[in-house]
Structure formats: structure tokens, C-alpha cells
Amino acid sequence: MRSAAPGRHAAGLAIAALAVASGLAGCSSSDKSAGDSTGANAQASGGQAAGGGAYTIWDPYPQHDKSSDWVKLLESCGTQAGVAVERTAYDTTDLTNKTLLAAQQGNAPDVLIVDNPVVSTLAEAGVLTSTEENKLDTSAIAPNLLAAGQSGGKTYGVPIGANTLALYYNKGVLKKAGVDVASVKDWASLTAALEKVKAAGKKGITFSAIGTEEGSFQFLPWFWGSGAQLTKLDSPEGVSAVALWTDWLKKGYAPNSVINNTQTTSWQEFAGGDFAFAENGTWQLANAEKAGFEYGIIPVPAKDGGTAPAPTGGEFVGIPVQQDTARYAVSQKLVACLTSTDNSLSTTTALSYIAPTEEVQAKQVEQNAGLKVWVEAVKAAKGRTSDDLGTKYPKISEPMWNAVQAALSGSKSPQQAMAEAQTAAASATQ
């Protein structure tokens, strides 16, 4: 993609709008309500309409209003760059669609903060400039996090922070069942723990396996933790991950409700106090403190031990293509301010994320030792569009979540479900 006029990419933008619908999940940041939450002087127009030294920033954080630390940071970065910042916040899906439309009209915002799986879609549609073009420094960013914003050998933006998945556990339930959480190191020891919990009259594990991107997001640690690759869904390793979940349901270690659970309803089950484990994300930390029982957190174990790669949630901040390329210099200052080492701790604290650099991660753990497990999980995490899958990912994810649904419901065996999913994915990504 070159910095040409956005109208040149109209066909790509139209295709991208269709691809986005199947590629988003409510797992990129803390729960977001639909609609706009605007900061001072915010407007729905893009950078080209903002005159008088004003620069527009669009983000997916409507839960943060003008009084929030996040908006204060945006305004501070504007002041440092010598411009006024006009900020508009949208729901994640709405933001993507409005960005595509604005780009098509040649009216994109100056700075865009967007869910990481969407970056490759926008990049391939010609909406975003690359870090090579806009001179953004990504040298300190963890490579596994940066990979989520890479497509065709180029990087499009900087991760503003990351979240991911781990296993929360109820200390009281495990104690009653005689389970030492330190013994849970792989799939076999986790399953053995679930067996003890059930025998003690409690419930084993809850998670989200709903037939949407949320279901894929929660399945990926087990899929990747088996050693499987998204380009081969029906490998023996991939089938073993589906079989693990299926066996848990058959044996009563996980409830049938997981088939329809979102990450929110799964958490509500765990918060009831009867479950030993729940797979969920960083965004539930505040709710965990309110649960009324002692809890702990461990990484999702890989099949044969170690930490499974969980998918990265979180956003990238980037610079959309502008007809007036002279605007890029100030946009670069705004992005650099938001992602600088000095401000990264403030940014990630305001957004409840783990920082994308080791230096700031160390500062986070120093301030809150409870974040150590999340830092470890993020270090092992992997972007859903990594391995240069880009816009192919949604076309693989949907057959995968359909396969998981079919296996858990008992309509197909894990082998049959994943074999059919691989055929569908291969056809869709040709």
C-alpha cells in the first residue's frame, strides 16, 4: 500500500467491510457499550475536515469519557504536539465500519486506534500507512505483539497494549477437592484436577465456546497449545484440542452451557462460586476482586506442559492514509507520545492492558505483583492474524468455531468436525 488518495482503494474498502463483520470479537479490551462517547470538541468527521490546527483521533473506548485519564492523556499529547485534539469514541465494530467509509470518502481520522485483528484488513484495503512510511519506532515492541499488525512484510501501527487469556481459579473449591494448583502443569494434570473437583461435589471449568469469534478466541490457547497451526485445522494436534473440550463435557467437568456462553456469561458462572476454573481475560480482574472468594490465576497450560500461546487482544494505534501528506508529521508526534516509554505505563494503566515492551512490563509488575502471571501470558501470546495470515484469519476462524460447536453438541466427532472445517477454510482462503 502506498500513500495514494483513498478513493483509489474503493473496491478494496468495499470488500474489507464484508470481511470485518466476521473478524471481530468482544475480546480486544474491557467490555464496551455501543455508541459514541466523545471528548471535548469531538466530531464524527475525519482529519481532512478538522481545520485550524485540530487533529482527529478515533478510538474504541466509549467507556472512557472526558474526565478519564485516557482522554487527559490524549489532550496532553495534543498540547505537546502543538495542536488541539478532537477525539471520537466508537464501539469496536462501528469504529471499523466508519473508518472504512471515511477512508473511501477521503476523510479518514489523523490517528486511529483499532482492534488488532482488523489492522491487516485495513492495511490491505489501503487505509493505513506503514511504520516505514510514517517513521514510527517499533524497535522496543515485543515481536509476538507486533506481529498482529503485520501484513505483506510491513508493519501498520504500534500496539498500544495487550490483554490475553489465562485460567482464574477458586482457591476454596480447589482446597475442598484436595487439589494443589501447583500440580496443574499440562492437560493431563488439569483434567485430573477437574475429576477431583467433580468428585468433591463442585463444578470443574467454564469457558466460552459460542459460535462467534469469542468462541475461537477462547479455543485458540488449547488449539495452539496442542502444537496445531491454523493452516491445518484437522491435524492430529488440532483434533486433540477439540477432543479435550468434548471429553470435558461428556464427563461433566464442563457444563453444556459453554456452547452458548460468551466470555461475560462464562465469567458470571465462575463468579457464582461453584466452579474451580474459568478461562477468561485481564479485563475481569476488577470483577474478580468483587467475587467474594479468594482466587488465583495461572496461565493456560499447553498439552505437554509450559504456557500455551493465547491470542492477543488489544489495539494498535496507527496513521491512516491522508490526501494531505503534510499532516503525517504531527500525527507521528501524537502516536509517538501515546506509545512512548514515558507514557506507556499511563496508557496501559488507563486501559487495563499489559504494556508491549519489557521495560514497562517490569514497571507494571513492580507496582502490582498480581500482574506477573498476565505478563507471562502476554509474552507467550500470539496474534490471530500472525504468520502473515492477515485477512485469511476470519475465513479460518469461522469454520473452526463451527467445528467446535458441532463436536461439543455431539452432532459430529472431533475428527469429522475439524476435517470439514479444514475443507471449508482451504476453499475460502484459496
Question: What are the key terms here?
Answer:
alpha/beta; five-stranded mixed beta sheet; globular; disordered N terminus
In short:
The chain is α/β, with parallel strands linked by helices and 430 residues long. It contains 18 helices and 11 strands.
Q: Any overview of this molecule?
A:
With 430 residues, the protein is of the alpha/beta class. The protein has helices at 10-21, 69-81, 92-104, 116-124, 131-134, 143-146, 171-177, 187-199, 213-225, 236-250, 263-271, 285-289, 328-339, 341-351, 358-367, 372-380, 393-409, 414-428, and strands at 54-59, 84-89, 111-115, 150-151, 154-155, 158-159, 165-170, 203-206, 275-281, 295-298, 315-318.
Topology, please?
Layout: H1 10-21, E1 54-59, H2 69-81, E2 84-89, H3 92-104, E3 111-115, H4 116-124, H5 131-134, H6 143-146, E4 150-151, E5 154-155, E6 158-159, E7 165-170, H7 171-177, H8 187-199, E8 203-206, H9 213-225, H10 236-250, H11 263-271, E9 275-281, H12 285-289, E10 295-298, E11 315-318, H13 328-339, H14 341-351, H15 358-367, H16 372-380, H17 393-409, H18 414-428
Parallel strand pairs: 1-2, 1-3, 8-9
Antiparallel strand pairs: 3-11, 4-5, 6-11, 7-9, 7-10
Helix pairs in contact: 1-3, 1-4, 2-13, 7-8, 9-10, 9-17, 10-17, 14-15, 17-18
